[in-house]
Amino acid sequence: TWRVWAIYMVLAANLSEEQVLTQPCPSCDATQLCNCSSMGLDFIPSGLTSKITTLNLAHNRIKHIRSQDLQQAVNLRVLLLQSNEISSIDEDSFRSLGKLELLNLSNNSLAHLSPAWFGHLFSLQHLRLQGNSYRDLGESSPFSSLRNLSSLHLGNRWFSTIRQGNFEGIELLDKLWIEGGNLSQYEPGSLKWIKKINHMIINIRSVKVFSAIVRDLLHSVIWLEVREIKLEMIEKKSLVQNSTLPFRIRKLTFKDASFTDQYISRIIVLLKEITSLQELEAIDCVLEGKGKWNIDEIVSSGQSFVEKVSVINIMILNFHLFLELEGLESQINKLKALTIASSRVFMVPCKLAKQFSSLLYLDFHDNLLVNNRLDETICKEAWPSLQTLNLSQNSLKSLKQTANCVTRLPELINLDISQNNFGEIPDVCAWPKNLKYLNLSGTQIPKLTTCIPPTLEVLDVSANKLKEFGLQLPFLKELYLTKNQLKTLPGAAPIPNLVALSIRRNKLNSFSREELEGEQVGAVHLSLMECHRSLIVSLICILVFLVILVLVALGYKYHVVWYLRMTWAWLQAKRKPKRAPPKDICYDAFVSYSENDSEWVENIMVRELEQACPPFRLCLHKRDFVPGKWIVDNIIDSIEKSHKTLFVLSEHFVQSEWCKYELDFSHFRLFDENNDAAILVLLEPIQSKAIPKRFCKLRKIMNTKTYLEWPPGEEQQERFWENLKGALKS
């Protein structure tokens, strides 16, 4: 029997696999874009045709790609297979994809890369292979046929080796990203096959491998970005060893890197040898030192060719002990642009600041600069050529002191001091004579005074507390007043050369003719709400009215008011005891009936029961309801004070509004108690479709509970009265 069971399991597995293989992706029908991502697929779905240009199979459980899976998708341009479990691919799986431009195989389980996979992908421009499990790229180049490749992303945490011929066949790349955190073996010359790389990113920890790669890239890469490296070993070899001019590398970025004092000194010296290097960048880096750099070695190595330095979010572990870097003056006098942002800078020594003789652009945004230290940072003769200064997002408090400091910058044209908390603004300030751009947005100033320099061409005072604008600024071309409290437009006469005005999110409510006099408005970008407020408000009111109308119509159609009224009555009744005490029972039965059946009830049933021996006392709404009392309360009280509730059912009954209330309340108070307090008398046959759907319990009770049916013959009627009297006595 175990053999039979094993055969059955194999056949069942094969059948299940065939079902999955033939199951199409539902979003692929008659469309050029086929999104089958995150659908739990174990195989590439069947039915892929030549109409499809984009196929997204990401985030599934695909383990294997077969030769025939993509055979018909000859016009495919984009194939996304990332985040699956792919461990094997048939050699000719991509053979028919000659028009494919993007292939993403990242984050799978590929233990090796085969050149045969890419042999027919002549149009491929973007290839993503990162996040797999291969340790190297093989003995030769997997990419030798990819002549149109533009971007390549490869590597993983196990990737350890790059060999000489691995990149043969690739000549030009816009972007190359190698995740080589554990890259330990690099054969020199491996990357020299690539003649030009616009941007290369490499995650690397080995200083030795980093140096070897830089030597190979001197003539090809324009921007090199190095991530996660820990520069602590001192590299003695030259980075340009045996290399000939001219070099191509222009920009070098370190991201998420860490440096020691010793290596910083050495890297500065080594980078000077790369005469083409113009820009240095350090982002999210850590400096493990106190500034004890080998100044003598740095100075003796000659002049630096770098013109732009950016330091963003650098962490200096011992910043309170950091030295003033005296002696570096000769290394910075050719620098044109300097950014030190989000790095807790609170001052620059005056002596060092004076040496930036060629600096044109200085960005200190998001630091800890305060006014009493700003005198030291911008001392007399400091930053003599500076034209643009960004001091936004610092801790400056005094606008007057800030203005006095920047007057020492005779060439200053652009000044950004936004998002400082000035609060107040003086009547008079001194500014550089050439100042043309001033950003005071988000500085909590309540008004504008003649402190604002009249030389300005661009003024940004957005996000403040301004209630008016009346400055005389004859040269002003652009004015930004967004997010203030202005009620009127600025006058046209004081700003005759204005070209652009941004005044959104204020409190404007009317324009006067005088405010609009001046030059013809050129390009204005206003929202629909700002242009047609009355129309928008009217449309909103009409829309609200229509919504209310629709709700009323739906409420009428689906008896919402009836439900609400009954719910209210039920909530009131829920506060009362479910059954009245025996002493409060006044009637043998409350009779619920339609007015159209009153002749039978009042002339036949009441006479028979109330004249019986002993007589029964019945509660009828015509006779026994309390005058002036809300009818729903009358119904509730009568049912509660009656031993039984007797329903006279007929076609008229189920169409009666008040019978519905009585019956529905009985649902809550009687039927749910699983007792016999309700007696059903069927005066005439009722079709089930005549019973309203909301009375589902009546349908259920009529199917499960015995009811008395009024017979046409006199002999049967005697039996009917006996049964009814017996039910009332029970």
Write a brief caption for the model.
Helix content is 26%, strand content 17%.
Structure in words:
Residues 1-22 form the signal peptide. One of its GO terms (molecular function) is transmembrane signaling receptor activity. The chain crosses the membrane at residues 535-556. Keywords: Disulfide bond, Glycoprotein, Immunity, Inflammatory response, Innate immunity, Leucine-rich repeat, Membrane, Receptor, Repeat, Signal, Transmembrane, Transmembrane helix. Pfam families: LRR_8, TIR. The chain is an alpha/beta fold. Among the domains are: 340-349 and 366-510, Leucine-rich repeat, LRR (right-handed beta-alpha superhelix), CATH 3.80.10; 587-729, Toll/interleukin-1 receptor homology (TIR) domain (Rossmann fold), CATH 3.40.50. It has 19 helices and 33 strands. The strands form 5 sheets. It has a 20-stranded parallel beta sheet, covered by helices on one side. It has a 5-stranded parallel beta sheet with strand order 30-29-31-32-33, sandwiched between helices. Strand 29 (587-592), helix 13 and strand 30 (618-619) form a beta-alpha-beta unit. Helix 12 (560-574) crosses helix 17 and helix 15 crosses helix 17 (657-669). Mean pLDDT is 84; it is low at 1-22.
